[in-house]
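Example 3.
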Amino acid sequence: MDLKAPHSMGTTIIGVTYDGGVVLGADSRTSTGMYVANRASDKITQLTDNVYVCRSGSAADSQIVSDYVRYFLHQHTIQLGQPATVKVAANLVRLLSYNNKNMLETGLIVGGWDKYEGGKIYGVPLGGTIIEQPFAIGGSGSSYLYGFFDQAWKEGMTKDEAEQLVVKAVSLAMARDGASGGVVRTVIINSEGVTRNFYPGDKLPLWHEELEPHNSLLDIINASGPEPMHM
Amino acid sequence: MSSIGTGYDLSVTTFSPDGRVFQIEYAAKAVDNSGTVIGIKCKDGIVMGVEKLIASKMMLPGSNRRIHSVHRHSGMAVAGLAADGRQIVARAKSEATNYESVYGEPIPVNELAGRVASYVHLCTLYWWLRPFGCGVILGGYDRDGPQLYMIEPSGISYRYFGAAIGKGKQAAKTEIEKLKLSEMTCREGVIEVAKIIYKVHDEAKDKAFELEMSWVCDESKRLHQKVPDELLEEAKAAARTALEEMDAD
């Protein structure tokens, strides 16, 4: 077991806009090689009162970038005399990511709410691109979610619909991606403020083979085919 | 109020016994000797106008611009020493583009005004630098709406509904105060500014002048630009008519 391997967050991170704000979601697994160094990490980090960031990739790199951006945003807020916008936060993140691309390995999703643009999500993947999106997914677990979002995403969801979508998506990815697991954390940001939610294993929907325990092969042979997934 | 600060006015780093820095006050006099510059904030934008005194008939009309664009959304009208004004505009342009590269959004007008003011003030702190001999009216339109600022050679910057600097500033301010700016559109504002400049122009002391105007408003898509030619001509004609009516009284 390689205990000296860097802590990485094989991860699933998601950011989704809804009518009035954003919902950010993530799993909680931090691994050192094959060992799960932290099974209950918080990958959704605060940058300002109204902007949070989902971190993936190298844990160290994503933490240091968040720390710098929090510091710059704090000074910017003091100078400006009002809360920073999500766009400014995302731009600071991508400048650090881009200008240090040779040394960093971190994919980030910046999400928040400001009074000018409302809820906004910005993806800042590995090379330091910045892209504003109605929803963004990242981390190793996101590979399993592209098709899911193509089918399940729609404009103008309510807050609860958006959160349910995020929880469902993260739990689907956790079921298939070995590097994602643990619990699901969500952060909802809107004009009223910030709400953090926590979904332990027993609160998550069950998938596929998790649904029925099999006592004998005969059960599988005689059972009818799996139900198609309902949305 | 003119006073000689004998002995205490040799350096910008010297206070007089009554707490004044004379060099800064002398710098302000340089501004007072220049052609009038006006800025007003209408309900949908900013209008700025300059009374450009023409030194020689050989000068090409449209040359020696006194109003400069600082960024897409803001512009600056300069009064006083022209070369000093060029420095301030260059600095403002640089601050604006730098802010946008770091923060990813256009510089808020109040932030820009603060930076220009800091820069002007900086040059009043060292004995080896002289103060800027120019005042600046900065007008811009950002996400908080249209805003107008005036920066003086001392480095003071305030936000205004209407501002005037230069020779005819007292008369201009009186005229501006008569306007109902909160109900006026920029289109109407352009006409009013032209009238005021024509009115405060002193025919006896200064011969010819050229009117230069710019605006940034909803009609210009929140971009700072020269007032379109036909509107400018309309404004000049209205101003001349208003003057004739006054003379006729």
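Strands of chain B lie at 37-42, 45-53, 67-71, 74-80, 134-142, 145-151, 157-159, 162-165, 209-217, 225-226. Chain B touches chain A through seven residues (CB under 8 Å).
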